[in-house]
């Protein structure tokens, strides 16, 4: 299990929806923000959570959990960071692109419901970049509208894990939202100052030898409490990283499907679960045990393919902690969390 938190951020705690094996929970734990409650439907992934976060109250069905359930578990809404890495299959460019009409990706409606019921201080969402374009952007407009109706200030950005110290390309859409008086806080947390400049110098180097050029997008919106309307307050420039095209990075999603082979000293082999854990920035053996029993590799591969790159969210969690502790939207040093 993670080391105990010696100096927790004053009162902040996490409610983790679609928690998986706790990658986001671990990231926030390292930033001094513990997980008070988590929701995960898969019994094997939930078993990993039980073993790694024994003090976290666990729920299984997102469609049935209510704000009353969470407050009974000790959740304090105005000190809560609600995180949600809801299923992305319906949004992926490699999938059927059903968007919010997909049975799994449509679970957003329950994320939005709990946001409205609980009204947490912070919100962090994670999904694939395809969410921005599925159904010609209409689904993302629905999500933005749901957040705006809450009076939540929010922003979004596509981040690549290869810029946070892990040797894989893993681009994910990250949303950050805040309910409160810290005007500009989500943008300050998620959008680095250099991002608003044209052609800025790189603020952090990628892992060695990027396999190919990647790009991302970012945006921010401020909702007006009296009208429920939202307007674009800032548009950050595209994040880019150029490479030499040699294709020597590893892709955890391919590995999780058992499709990726690597060459070592002239031999061919598949990645091991431990190597996939390292690709995601997880400690060795993080998924080895579930419910006090050793897991099959097939479960571990699937869980790791659905997980997040922990260093990305540790960077984000530290910025949230610093902003919340300061009590104002502060300028933070750019770069990934150590």
UniProtKB/TrEMBL annotation:
Residue ranges, annotated region (Disordered): 196-226
EC number(s) stated in the UniProt entry for this protein: 2.1.1.37
Location of the active site: 88
PROSITE patterns in the record: C5_MTASE_2 (PS00095), SAM_MT_C5 (PS51679)
GO molecular function (one): DNA (cytosine-5-)-methyltransferase activity
GO biological process terms, semicolon-separated: DNA restriction-modification system; methylation; negative regulation of gene expression via chromosomal CpG island methylation
Pfam families: DNA_methylase
Homology family: Belongs to the class I-like SAM-binding methyltransferase superfamily. C5-methyltransferase family.
Name recorded for this polypeptide: DNA (cytosine-5-)-methyltransferase
